[in-house]
Each structure stands twice: as structure tokens, then as C-alpha cells.
């Protein structure tokens, strides 16, 4: 088993254990049940400037929101 770092939308950083190579990109937070997204803790990322990391975090957060903005046409017949 390997410990992976996840980021819960509600309570922040969470460490979860999965068999090697089987960590899902997203899972449910064991503490609060909210969605937790896997943090890619590569050496390169940890050396990013804080502002840059915030920007990435913001982008991740926006990815969490379901996007139902536009749908392809086709459900409707003219
Ligand atoms: Zn949580």
C-alpha cells in the first residue's frame, strides 16, 4: 500500500492509502465525504512559487464544478 496525497474541497489535505498504482484521480474524502482530488506531488511542483500553486489550485477547483454549459445540438429536431 502506498500513501497518496489528496486535496479535499472541504477540509484540505488528506492522505489516503491505496495499493500501488491504483490510486484514483478523485475519491470521496474519508472525513467528510466530499470529493477529494489527487495531488500530484512531483518534486517540480513542490518548488513552484506559492502564487503559481494557488493558480493551479484555482484551476483544479474550477474543474470540480460540473460543467453543463453547452450541449451539442441534436436532441431537438427542426
Ligand atoms: Zn473532507
TrEMBL record:
The lineage of its organism: Bacteria, Bacillati, Actinomycetota, Actinomycetes, Pseudonocardiales. InterPro entries: Regulatory_FmdB_Zinc_ribbon. It comes from Actinomycetospora endophytica. Residues 1-41 form the Putative regulatory protein FmdB zinc ribbon domain. It comes from the Bacteria. This is Zinc ribbon domain-containing protein. Transmembrane segments: none annotated. Residues 58-78 are annotated as: Disordered. Residues 58-70 have a biased composition (Basic and acidic residues).
